[in-house]
Every structure is written in structure tokens, then in C-alpha cells.
Amino acid sequence: MRCLICHNLSLSTFCKDCKKSILKPDMTKRQIGTLDVYSFYKYTHIQELIHTKHTPLGYKVFNALAKLSFTPFIDNFLSVDNREIYVIGIDENPKNSFSHVAVLTHAMKRNNAKVKYASLLASSNMSYSGQSLEFRLSNPRKFTYTGKKNIDAILVDDIITTGTTLQEAMIVLKKNDVRVQFALTLADARE
Predict the structure, then answer these.
(1) Most buried one in 27, 50, 174, 177, CB count within 10 A?
(2) Could you tell me whether strands 28-32 and 151-160 are parallel, antiparallel, or unpaired per DSSP bridges?
(3) pTM summary value
């Protein structure tokens, strides 16, 4: 097998050198309304990897990226805050045999971090990829939540662009007595 970045021989999706240099998370924070959104990478740094999300290779790529970013994050978070927290992914509908967001949330599953798979789903299948803010605002995702109520939660998505999806999700969760502590995304598209 070869590293997907440098193409050197590797036993895993990415070689040790690429994990340490190119794929070392560089966490950033954005505030969207009252929601703090933390991202592990800049979109332009991992753009080609993110584009694998609707391909069979995408499962391996997202799993490897999740282990480099989401897994250490939740372990560190729980080492300082051991309360029970729920992890809710945005629109974990499988596309092409897997849900890339579910891969990210699964990497956070721990005794005190409960993953609520496919509990926040969009009834609109509108694609926001490459769309303007005006388009996103005039075509809401229309989320429904079917999970547990009266909980503290971390919201998870793959990319933050304008933040409209995260804001809409947070509003729906708040109406269902879910206290979103913050959101995590793999990448931030803002430059």
C-alpha cells in the first residue's frame, strides 16, 4: 500500500511523515452566532482528501483523518471534563455506502461520549456544495431530531463554510432541549 499523499510505501492510509507534517491538526476557532466552532484543518490543505467522501476510498481517508484529529480531541476533552456528553453528527445519511460524518462521530465514541447516530437528519436533500450564502439561506436543510432530550452535546460536521448548516442544526437541537456545547468540523473553508 502507498501513502495517499506522498505515495511512499506505507502500511496505513498515510505514512508517518505525512501524518506528522502535512496532516498534523492545526485547530482554529470561529464563532457563528453564539456557537463556537472548532476546526482541525484548513479546507485548502486537505481539499483533495475531503473530495473522496463520496467514493469507496473516502471511508479509509475519513477514518484516518478522524483518528488524527477527532480521537485525540475527545480523549483530551474527557480528561478535563468527565461528564456524560453526546456526540451528534449533522445529516448522517449514508451516501455511496457510508456516511462520512458518521465516521467522524464514531471516532469520538467513549464511555462518557455517547454517539447518537443519524438522530439529526435533513429532510431536504439540497446540496450546498459551492453554493452562495443567499442560496443556503433561501434553501434550509429542514432538520429533524429524533434523539435523546435534555442532554449536553457536541455537534459534528465535515466542513464549515458559511455556518448556516450549523446554526440551523443548533436551533433544532435547542428546541429539543439539547444543549450544544460547541461544534467540531474537520475543515474550515474560510480563508
Answers:
(1) 50
(2) unpaired
(3) 0.91
